[in-house]
Structure formats: C-alpha cells, structure tokens
Amino acid sequence: MKLITRNTDYAVRALCFIAQSKKKKVTVEELVRVLEIPGPFLRKILQILNKKKLLKSYKGQNGGFSLTKLQDKILLTDLMKIFQGPLKLNECIFKKQVCPNIKTCKLKKKIDKIEKCVISELKSVSLAYLLKKN
Fold this sequence. Notes:
Elements: H1 6-20, H2 28-35, H3 39-51, E1 55-58, E2 64-67, H4 76-84, E3 93-94, E4 97-98, H5 106-122, H6 127-131
Antiparallel strand pairs: 1-2, 3-4
Helix pairs in contact: 1-3, 1-4
C-alpha cells in the first residue's frame, strides 16, 4: 500500500518549489528542469492544482504559476484528496462486496482507530511545515 502516490508527491514538490521561489511566478519549464519531472505529466498536475484554486496560472510569454493560498493553508491531506481520493486504509471489501462481518470485525475497529491517528498526523503537515528549516 502506498500512502502517497506519485501525483501527490509531484504536486508537493512543485508547490514547495513555487513557494520557495523568489519570483512572482514560476514557469513550467523551470519546474521541469529543476524537479526533473516529465513536462506533460507536470502540466497535468499543475492544471489540476489551478482548477482546485491552489495555483493561479498566467498565460503568455511571461506566463507561469503562483500560489493562491498561504503556505500554512495548503495541507498534505488536501493534496492527497485531490490526487488520491479520501484516505482509507481498509475498505472492507471481500470478493468485490462489502464484508459481511463489517459490524463485528475486531480488525476493522483497530484499523479504523489507526486510520484516525494517521489522518490526524497528516493534517498537521502543511507546505509551511515542509519548508521549515529544522
């Protein structure tokens, strides 16, 4: 099980770079060069972030992207929801159907408790946290 997918990872890396940039806007070409992420793949991720209003895009020769929110308001859990859907450690699916023991299963209760802890910890991770120097 992957907790963070490649799309989420690339989004985090791009947002961190844009947040650290001294420029008002960062070009796709600069992001591709510095982050070494394939251009078409990164463009798709940036378009999604623009559509979700985490980035503002500027078109034209002097185009690029800038953040629309403060670094502490962009949470890892938000990015995970955008690129991965809701965080679920266990969906209790057995042979493509909901498990018949879902209401009495001790394992499900334990996993649900672990899931709440994981989500709580992940909600504390913002861009600002990731960019903070020790």
